[in-house]
Every structure is written in structure tokens, then in C-alpha cells.
């Protein structure tokens, strides 16, 4: 069966999201219709924490993935001069993107001081729209960190005012996410090493302290979905069904 983007988006019952898109024949067909995926995150490292395996699967299939960070991580970089954190963490984000064959963009806010006002909603919406995404990923809004909550609201606002065009999925980031009940899962068993490398690219964030918990979570999500390891998502219920790899 040929799976074009149009038929995928137009028929919510076409194929379960955890189905066999990874099979070579179907993957090749999906690859010919290149999708633009934007994975947003509050800080450098957040999109990688929640979605690096899924990003690797997308780019392996030939899709175009952008990691859009709300800020450059100005607030914290272990072992670095605080005045240089933005430069250091921008470099780490770009290294992670290289590992995942993705592209980095930055929304220009300041780490720890996320602003939600009309101007910032407008600016973020314009930035997101400029990428013309087919699928957008955002952090789940119930979160312990203000920047994560702000990022989620900025994406939701842009999606609503833009007519809900791209598929919209929410993701989790380990200890910060609260009350998250995912419904869609992506098998990351074969790309876990790249997920790990992308997270460890953020060396200033001391990945040894938090990556083991990441593995516990992806294993737990794998248990829920029948895979070795999985990343978990929740689609906005008014969103069309996008293509998950
Ligand atoms: Zn964060």
C-alpha cells in the first residue's frame, strides 16, 4: 500500500502509529514524500531527552528535522564560565543535531526567564510558521520548569492561531514532566546508541546524572508498548494524525 502524506493526514484510521513504517518497502515510500518535523524544547537538550530516538528514525527515513530551542541555555553550564554558557551550550546543541542529522534553531529567549506576552507569542508563531512544519513536537505543559511550560504554551498558541495545520504531539522529559499519559509510542531499540550520544553531547549538563533515568523511562515505555525501548507521545486530540516513524 502506498502511503502518501496526503492519505496519511486525510485518513486517521489508515495505519496505527506504532505499525510497520520501519519496514523497508513502506519506509521508502514515506521517504519520497519528505516531511518537515519541528521538535521544540525549553532548553538545549530537552528535544534530545524526549525525542532523540524518534528524531534519528525520522532522519534515517530522509525526513527534514529541526530542533527549535527556546533559548541557548544561558543559565547553567557545569565547568564553564557562566558568561560563556550560551556559546558552550549552542555548540553542544549543534553537536547533538549533527549526531541526529537534524538542524538547530534558537527562538531567542533567555534561560530561566521565559516570557509569555503578545510580542513573544507573535515572534514564536512567526518562527514556527517559517519552517512550514508537517509535524510539531512540544513539551507537555504540566511540568516543573517554567521554561518548559512556557515553551508548551508558545507552541500551542502558534498551532491554534495557525489553524491547527501541522500534527501536534507532546513529549516527556523524565523528572520534570508531570501527569503524562501517552498514547503513541515509537520503537527506539535500534537507535538508542544515537539517542545516548545526542544526550551526552550536552556534556555541561552532566549527563551521567540523568541519563540512567532516561533509560529506565524508555524501557518502561517499551514495556507499555511491546518494544525493547520506546519514546512516548500524546497527540493533541484536535490534531490530525501525523506520521510517526
Ligand atoms: Zn529543560
3D structure, described in words:
This protein has 245 residues and is of the alpha/beta class. It has a single domain, classed as LmbE-like (Rossmann fold), CATH 3.40.50.10320. It contains eight helices and seven strands. The protein has a seven-stranded mixed beta sheet, sandwiched between helices. Helix 3 packs across helix 7 and helix 5 packs across helix 6. The longest helix is centred in the last third of the chain and has 19 residues. The radius of gyration is 17 Å and the shape is globular. The two termini are 16 Å apart. The N terminus is likely disordered. Bound molecules: zinc ion. Zinc ion binds next to helix 6.
- Quote the beta fraction: 15-25%
Low-pLDDT windows of residues: 1-29
Major sheet: size, sense and barrel closure? 7 strands, mixed
The level 1 CATH classification is Alpha Beta
- Order of strands, main sheet, comes to 3-2-1-4-5-7-6
Number of domains: 1
Give the CA-CA distance, first to last residue. Answer: 16 Å
Strand count:
7
At CATH level 3, the topology is Rossmann fold
Q: What class would the helix/strand composition place it in?
A: alpha/beta
* CATH architectural type: 3-Layer(aba) Sandwich
Compute the average pLDDT.
89
Secondary structure tally, helices: 8
Amino acid at each position: 500500500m502506498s502511503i502518501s502524506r496526503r492519505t496519511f493526514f486525510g485518513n486517521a484510521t489508515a495505519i496505527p502509529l506504532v505499525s510497520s513504517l520501519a519496514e523497508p518497502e513502506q519506509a521508502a515510500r514515506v521517504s519520497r514524500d519528505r516531511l518537515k518535523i519541528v521538535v521544540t524544547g525549553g532548553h538545549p537538550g530537552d528535544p534530545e531527552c524526549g525525542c532523540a530516538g524518534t528524531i534519528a528514525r525520522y532522519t534515517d527515513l530522509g525526513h527534514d528535522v529541526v530542533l527549535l530551542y527556546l533559548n541557548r541555555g544561558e543559565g547553567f553550564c557545569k565547568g564553564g564560565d557562566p558568561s560563556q554558557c550560551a556559546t558552550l551550550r549552542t555548540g553542544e546543541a549543534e553537536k547533538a543535531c549533527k549526531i541526529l542529522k537534524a538542524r538547530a534553531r534558537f527562538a531567542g529567549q533567555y534561560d530561566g526567564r521565559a516570557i509569555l506576552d503578545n510580542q513573544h507569542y507573535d515572534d514564536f508563531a512567526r518562527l514556527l510558521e517559517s519552517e512550514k512544519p508537517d509535524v510539531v513536537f512540544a513539551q507537555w505543559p504540566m511540568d516543573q520548569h517554567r521554561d518548559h511550560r512556557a515553551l508548551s504554551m508558545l507552541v500551542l498558541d502558534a498551532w491554534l492561531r495557525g489553524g491547527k495545520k501541522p500534527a501536534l504531539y507532546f513529549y516527556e522529559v523524565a523528572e520534570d514532566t508531570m501527569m503524562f499519559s501517552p498514547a503513541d509510542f515509537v520503537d527506539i531499540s535500534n537507535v538508542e546508541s544515537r539517542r545516548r550520544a545526542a544526550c551526552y553531547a550536552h556534556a555541561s549538563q552532566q549527563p551521567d546524572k540523568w541519563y540512567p533515568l532516561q533509560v529506565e523511562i524508555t524501557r518502561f515505555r517499551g514495556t507499555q508498548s511491546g518494544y525493547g525501548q520506546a519514546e512516548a507521545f500524546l497527540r493533541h486530540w484536535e490534531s490530525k494524525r501525523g506520521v510517526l516513524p
